[in-house]
């Protein structure tokens, strides 16, 4: 499904290279986890997959279902089925959450050549998923993420992801700022989307999220490259021993 070949990425404004020849393959229906110390390039990888303008690819390519996506903007990548879950979802005062969700899903359906959802069908879909995520309807009538806790913001993001029906989900430290109850709810929402039609790339510092989402593969990213790959046991090892023995230097 996703193939990254010899990817070199710079910060557009400064020219500082963050990814130094990264190679990665995520197969159909696979859930892959990326772990690594601070500054290793994890968030940069997520942003470049989504088409963030703040980064520049200087070498290499990214293929999604055999098609290069480097020349595509974020909307085009979204239409293909790529979804990015942010580490820190932003607040948008004045934009009601329900309206945001309706515009997002219908814009995506239009891009895919599908008919827009009528209001009753849209509301029924939202209610069904929101109930599973413990999201109240009054919460959806508030401005997007304004005054929401960290856990509430992540639940809204999982709601959005579920409505958009993606085929490849990049989750950038989704467990950041979550208490244990919110973590379980968010993990359950992600697990419900795992299928033969949807793959995940989960970026995380810790293996606690992986207690609830069992990954097929785990990769350790250091200094802009994948330096070790394995199964779930690799995440357990990192949690217990840190990264020093894997990347060969002290992680502080």
What does this structure look like?
It is a single chain. With 252 residues, the chain is α/β, with parallel strands linked by helices. It has one domain: Rossmann fold, CATH 3.40.50.300. The chain contains nine helices and twelve strands. The protein has helices at 42-50, 74-80, 97-111, 119-132, 137-140, 150-164, 180-193, 232-241, 244-247; strands at 2-11, 17-26, 31-35, 55-64, 67-68, 82-85, 92-96, 143-144, 168-172, 199-203, 217-222, 225-230. A six-stranded mixed β-sheet has the order 6-9-10-3-11-12, with helices on both faces. The radius of gyration is 18 Å and the shape is globular. The two termini are 36 Å apart. 37% of the residues are buried. The mean pLDDT is 90.
Present the secondary structure layout.
Elements (H helix, E strand, L loop, with lengths): L1 E10 L5 E10 L4 E5 L6 H9 L4 E10 L2 E2 L5 H7 L1 E4 L6 E5 H15 L7 H14 L4 H4 L2 E2 L5 H15 L3 E5 L7 H14 L5 E5 L13 E6 L2 E6 L1 H10 L2 H4 L5
Helix pairs in contact: 4-6, 6-7
